[in-house]
Amino acid sequence: MMTATKEERSVSQAMLNGLRQRCPKCGTGRMFNRYIKVNHSCDNCGEELHHQRADDAPPYFTMLIVLHFAMSGLVAVEQIYSPATWVQLTIWLPVCLVSALWMLPRIKGALIGIQWARYMHGFGGDFT
What we know:
The chain is mainly alpha-helical. It has one domain (11-127). Helices cover 52% and strands 0% of the residues. α2 (57-81) runs antiparallel to α3 (85-117).
């Protein structure tokens, strides 16, 4: 009886492809067909992407990153300039919103890339 082995997949390359919102396998096809709606399969290489299970992880990681930078900036501005509350809100609410909206699909793409590289959630074909 012959046993098949999994080919080695580069986690770092798959993550970079995901950060670029591209297919983790070929790096060319688009991962999303809308803002964060994952394509059923890659339009370039045909790799099935519907197996992904990113679920709630991308928003959590996005909030973790954005709010660390926002709170650091808010505290720094408060200590240096001590502006009025409305000034802080005028600065940091748009910064948080734009940063979170920009980062969310990239983080989701990176997480899907990790899943693909590690043969998780159906990305392993017959090996799962």
